[in-house]
């Protein structure tokens, strides 16, 4: 059954996505103040609302065009703010942040190239979703180790394993996007060349 995409603005998923965006500055304030427990609680609230808004959108026919933009934007901004906050407080190395941001910049450039050839954004790849999930799992686990040091012997290796696996999947998905984009551009150029040959003939 196809999902109906509405133009509604005031929906439960959109309100929850906006709420997640508003949590970002509060999270950063708690993190910078060294209140790792409160920061972890805000990450948990954000994760719960992210699950709930997706569930409500799908099961109660509240998928909207605004939501299709707002939900991933909230996810990306929360990931970015969490990465920067954890790096700023010394809980993550800056090279790790740079590797993730570099992939997003790579996809942004890829999107511009596709737009110049008349194509919209590519569908989300399952590898990218898995990588995002792994990174979203890793960051609160690493934060848990800082908030409650007694958990560090388990939380740190678990968090780093998820983080490294997430980055690997993140870039794997990026390479898959690039290959797909290259194929689309080649097909487009081939179709143009065929059309030109037909006209000349």
Rg is: 20 Å
User: If helices are DSSP runs of H or I spanning 4 or more residues, what is the number of helices?
Assistant: 6
Give a quick account of the main beta sheet: strands, pairing sense, barrel closure: none
Shape: globular
Number of strands: 0
Q: Helix content range of the residues, please?
A: over 70%
> Low-confidence parts lasting 5 or more residues at pLDDT below 50?
none
Approximately how much beta-strand content do the residues carry?
under 5%
User: In sequence order, what are the helices and strands, one letter per element?
Assistant: HHHHHH
Average pLDDT confidence is 83
Category by helix and strand content: mainly alpha
Distance, first to last CA: 45 Å
Number of domains: 2
Structure notes:
The chain has 201 residues and is mainly α. It folds into two domains: 1-91; 92-194, no CATH class. The protein is built from six helices and no strands. The longest helix has 49 residues, at 152-200.
Summarize the structure.
The chain is an all-alpha fold and 201 residues long. 81% of the residues lie in helices and 0% in strands.
SSE layout:
Blueprint (H helix, E strand, L loop, with lengths): L11 H21 L3 H24 L5 H24 L5 H23 L9 H22 L4 H49 L1
Helix pairs in contact: 1-2, 1-3, 2-5, 3-5, 4-6, 5-6
């Amino acid at each position: 059954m196809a999902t109906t995409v509405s133009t509604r603005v005031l929906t439960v998923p959109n309100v929850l996505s906006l709420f997640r965006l508003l949590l970002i500055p509060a999270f950063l304030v708690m993190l910078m103040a060294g209140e790792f427990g409160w920061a972890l609680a805000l990450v948990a609230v954000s994760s719960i609302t992210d699950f709930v808004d997706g569930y409500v959108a799908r099961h109660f026919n509240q998928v909207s065009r605004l939501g299709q933009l707002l939900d991933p934007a909230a996810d990306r901004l929360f990931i970015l703010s969490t990465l920067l906050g954890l790096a700023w407080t010394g809980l993550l190395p800056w090279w790790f942040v740079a590797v993730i941001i570099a992939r997003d910049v790579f996809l942004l450039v890829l999107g511009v190239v596709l737009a110049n050839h008349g194509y919209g954004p590519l569908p989300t790849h399952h590898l990218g979703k898995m990588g995002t999930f792994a990174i979203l799992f890793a960051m609160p686990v690493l934060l848990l180790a800082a908030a409650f040091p007694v958990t560090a012997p388990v939380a740190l290796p678990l968090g780093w394993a998820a983080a490294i696996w997430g980055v690997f999947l993140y870039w794997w998905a990026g390479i898959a996007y690039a290959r797909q984009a290259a194929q689309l551009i080649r097909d487009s150029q081939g179709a143009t060349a065929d059309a030109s040959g037909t006209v000349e003939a």
